[in-house]
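Page 47, continued from p. 46.
Same chain as before, 420 aa.
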Amino acid sequence: MLLGNDASINSALRRLERLSSLDDQQLAELARAADMRRVRPGSCVLELGSEDSRLLFLLKGELKLVAEDGAVRIVRHTDAAALGPVSRLRPSRYRVTARTEVDCLLVEQKLLDSYSDQHTANSVLVADSYLVSEPNELIDDSASHPLMFDVFHDLNHGRIVVLSDPDIALRVGRSLGPLGTDPARLAGILSICPALTLKVLRAAKAARPDRVELHSIKQAVEQLGAEQTHALAIHCVLRESLRTESAVVRKRMRGWWERTMRVSAICAVLARMSERFNPDYAALIGLMHAIAEPVLLGYADRHPDLADNTALDNLVHDNRADLGRILLSMWGLPKEIVEAAARCNQWGYSGSAVADYTDILLVAEWHATIGGARSRRKPAIEEIPAFRRLGLQSCGPELGVKIVEAADQVIEKIEALLVV
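Result:
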């Protein structure tokens, strides 16, 4: 049942942490586009797997969230979790029903984001130039693990670090020495370490915020300058590599690096199949899509339960997309990079009528697991809209083999670039 006028919706919006600092005019405009509903006990509010683009906010009453595996969570309007969206990930990971009579609010996420971006008084300044949303951005599943509170505490205090695989970083550092100031060669070496790639992109953007968006690491090196890029990379190699005594964490970090390099290589291969796509940009999107993983791994040693390989893998996998979206948005990377990272777990993504870079990423992720360890169910090609949107749904196994072989060649070149 619909209820509420603009004034009552305005009042409801103001209690939400993301919007509490908007002015009256902004809230009134947003209220006109929001739906307030009263739901009877036992009624379904959101189906499991729903792709509804609207975010659900609980204003009054209790909701029951049931996951696919049967796990149950109860959210009350008095809980801190009710200050943010309930079951915000898409597809929804829960079937949400009303335990009591419930008042709730439905607001389009893109609309909410546009207002949140305009007003940042409720955000926290990070590293003097970046803004980040509050911890309730992550409310689903293992986002409630104490590690996530560690992440957001440091993020809100400007202490977030994207760590490098220590062995890869060391080899990259050794390889940088004899390169001189050739931007192309410097970019080639830096792209072997996704964390260093991100840091050069951020530094280049901060140095020249008035310039066009950066779509390759080579552009970033040219904009920042080879000498400054070299100094930044060496600094990060020495100070921002993973330090852990856990063999489980080390293995997970190396797995992230290997998988990321394969995904990036396959993204470039797929992009070359159509003139609409930029292979360098596709490769960069592949490098950035799981950049939240090393951030999360940097906190794993603090939590003994994450010494278990499955527990660690589940936590990292379940939180990488949403944290990646937050971090990459915060650091001002292009929207295609942010959107691809945000949907890197969404095999069912169908986007608009025309294929995009997120489709390329998802197909690349699918191919990157061929021949490797598979700890998760991988959908069949016909279950993944990205294959159809790229025109690859009816291609035989030969194409898949060629794609993987091309990626293998890229990986071999990467090994050759590194000084042992």
